[in-house]
Amino acid sequence: MWFAIDFHSHVPVYVQIKDNIKKLIVSGKFKENDFLPSIRVLSKDIGVNVNTVARAYRELEAEGIIKPERGEGYIVVGVHSEKLKSEKLRELENMLHKCKDIGITRKEIIDILNTVYEVSMESKEGGEDGEVRK
């Protein structure tokens, strides 16, 4: 399986697919000119409707991340990782403002941050020095 979809998430499935594909590209699992799995194969592998995967692919194409190759499928054009990081940091900052506005404490946020990074560090071999500590 390529990745898992959280069907209980408030994030639409097609957005989860887009985000996961971007993550696979940024991490180097898919490189420029690599073919993505076909829409039908990916939809079967992750257990979603073909139209949902097609929408994700269309949006990735509109963003310039993938492009169709006639009769072949979709290939990776690339992701501008600095632009993607910048977008995600802006999203995080906006979310942190919302959390602060409703009274979520710094400690609660740091606890979640530590949990997320501990889990992700444990899943990586060798880890990396990006862990946030209290």
Automatic annotation (TrEMBL):
The keyword Transcription regulation applies. Residues 11-79 form the HTH gntR-type domain. Keywords: DNA-binding, Transcription, Transcription regulation. GO terms for molecular function: DNA binding; DNA-binding transcription factor activity. This is Transcriptional regulator, GntR family. SMART domains: HTH_GNTR. InterPro entries: Tscrpt_reg_HTH_GntR (IPR000524), WH-like_DNA-bd_sf (IPR036388), WH_DNA-bd_sf (IPR036390).
